[in-house]
Fold this sequence. Notes:
The chain has about 350 residues and is of the alpha/beta class. The chain contains twelve helices and eleven strands.
Amino acid sequence: MMAEAETINIKAPVKLTKKDFTSDQVVRWCPGCGDYAILAAMQTALPMLDIPRENHVFVSGIGCAARFPYYMETYGFHTLHGRAPSIATGVKLANPHLTVWEMTGDGDSLSIGGNHFIHTLRRNIDINIILFNNEIYGLTKGQYSPTSKKGLVTKSTPYGSVETPFSPGELVIGALGSFFARTIDTNPKHMADTFIKSVGHKGTSVVEILQNCVIFNDGTHDLITSKDTKDDYQLLLEHGKPMIFGKEKNKGIKLNGLKLEVVKLGENGITEKDLLVHDAYEADPTLHSMLARMQAPAFPVAIGVIRAVKQPTYNDLVFEQIENSKQKQKFKTVNDLLNSGETWIVE
């Protein structure tokens, strides 16, 4: 039987509120930035978890998202560009009953931090990664990022980017990630609910937030988030329910051979029974990867928990290894070692 790291279910001594998680620091993001909504959603979600403030740790790298620890009335680390996963891993292993959050941007995590990101996923460290995806470098003033759309004109791609962008969801699933969800900065309630679900998952959880940068990449997610088009370009996933979307709730996703297909209910005899039913807990990642890959305008973008499967965590495996090693050791304590072999006493 696999030994598990010690966990302590500590409840907050009093009911906490959003105000309890709001620090005295002046929030310094550009007016209209989607980060404000993310901060508000997080400060709304944490009291619902009923975990003491001192049991939350926020770790960040470099970028606009990296200012997050200053604005939370919790413990936190503002670390190096792309290296936050290493610090977060150390925090979780040193004190396994802490709830550890990594706040990162698409540039921070998928460019200079790409190696740390994928290996954290592969190891399945029990931390929560919140990925702000505005498809641009904001803090350094508007260079293209690993998720920027092909053809995007920026300060570092004046003739348009020629690179194929990463799909964060596909990258997470391809790196053996056990939990991936997507939400949007224009829906604070959905964000807060998704944060809570990520904490409930044991292992590395990644929440991608489609976030708007009003200064350098304004409107990059408009088709998905705007009031006029969001119903036709958001597929709100719920485990165990058919994949239905559209203003009239008359569109759905069907598996046609090895490909996903958008269909209309009532046309060509299509009914709800023909639609895919979402299974977030399916171990096989094939459909999860296909859902994560869907892009507007050909498809709606999948919103919600796409993948949530049980896998052994790095934490548990490390503690199991330590316990097994202890059982096999001849010396149980330093005192045993010092008093072993040939010893003498100096009077």
